[in-house]
């Protein structure tokens, strides 16, 4: 299992002292266990050949590990004729089509719904148009915690004040939790500009206000995921999880865990969250995210992945 150095970006994986690696070590120290990993199914890199033209397949992970209520990547850009393949990596989630105005409700317009499914299930959808298509998890409570995603997200015009990147500063300024997550994300992506700016152009002008911070959290989580797996992101921001081949992908802790660690620790550390990595490095979380303990098989794989990385470096 060769875990090669990154092909994209300028030193996105970096040397052994990269922020990402030090964060990995910090996570191990903080959580007492390495990050989980996700092994792409072998079918990921195979093109569908059944009369669908030359469409490509986009993989979206449904819950990258038990307890992380995310779709990864949060948003994909797909063309007509492409296929979106949802792959479950944890139990009891759905992929259900909704709409931008009612993100957590099943739509009646050309609906699709996987039903409740468990780890290793796959659900594919052909892309029939390039309209923004929202989908969510129908397991009670999950969507409200941010478990939704977008195929062909709305794009903000140049200079728009409703793009994610232009709204982010105000969100960070108005929320200490958002500020802590933002600092953490910036630290994790500091050596990977494509990951650091991924999703910047998503236009939030038509989204309900309650969803905006959740969109930001989802984008931040996808950024940390992509920075952890730089081979899955090209310089133009396109994600191809299949690019990793059979190499297990690293699954970072959920973005909200940053916040709960800070909260359980000291508010002083949170207040300092907007300063660079030193503040994040000085936090010494004492609690373990209980959900992660459920993912022991994955953690074993994560350990192997970390070992492989250590050798590659
Ligand atoms: Cu779910």
Automatic annotation (TrEMBL):
Q: Which SUPFAM superfamilies match?
A: Cupredoxins
Region Disordered: list its residue ranges. 267-290
Matching entries from InterPro entries are given as: Cupredoxin, Phytocyanin_dom, Ser-rich/MCO-related
Q: Which Gene3D superfamilies match?
A: Cupredoxins - blue copper proteins
Q: Which residues form the Phytocyanin domain?
A: 79-147
Q: Name one GO molecular function term.
A: electron transfer activity
Q: What is this protein called?
A: Phytocyanin domain-containing protein
């Amino acid at each position: 299992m060769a875990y090669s150095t990154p092909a994209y970006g300028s030193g996105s994986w970096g040397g052994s002292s990269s922020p990402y690696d030090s964060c990995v070590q910090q996570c191990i120290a903080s959580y007492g266990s390495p990050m989980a990993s996700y092994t792409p199914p072998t079918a990921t890199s195979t093109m569908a050949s059944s009369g669908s033209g030359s469409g490509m397949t986009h993989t979206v992970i449904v819950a990258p590990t038990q307890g992380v209520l995310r779709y990864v990547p949060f948003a994909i850009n797909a063309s007509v004729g492409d296929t979106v393949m949802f792959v479950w990596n944890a139990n009891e989630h759905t992929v259900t089509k909704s709409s931008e105005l009612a993100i957590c409700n099943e739509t009646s317009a050309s609906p699709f719904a996987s039903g409740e499914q468990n780890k290793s299930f796959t659900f594919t959808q052909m892309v029939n148009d390039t309209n923004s298509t929202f989908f969510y998890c129908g397991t009670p409570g999950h969507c409200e915690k941010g478990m939704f995603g977008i195929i062909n997200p709305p794009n903000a015009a140049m200079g728009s004040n409703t793009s994610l990147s232009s709204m982010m500063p105000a969100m960070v300024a108005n929320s200490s939790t958002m500020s802590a997550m933002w600092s953490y994300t910036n630290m994790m992506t500091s050596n990977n500009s494509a990951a650091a700016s991924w999703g910047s152009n998503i236009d939030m002008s038509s989204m309900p206000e309650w969803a905006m911070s959740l969109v930001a959290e989802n984008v931040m989580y996808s950024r940390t995921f992509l920075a952890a797996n730089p081979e899955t992101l090209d310089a133009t921001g396109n994600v191809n999880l299949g690019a990793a081949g059979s190499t297990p992908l690293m699954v970072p802790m959920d973005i909200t865990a940053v916040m709960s660690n800070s909260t359980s620790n000291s508010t002083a550390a949170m207040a300092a969250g907007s300063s660079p990595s030193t503040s994040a490095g000085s936090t010494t979380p004492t609690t373990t995210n209980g959900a992660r303990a459920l993912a022991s098989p994955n953690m074993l794989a994560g350990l192997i992945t970390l070992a492989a990385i250590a050798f590659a470096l």
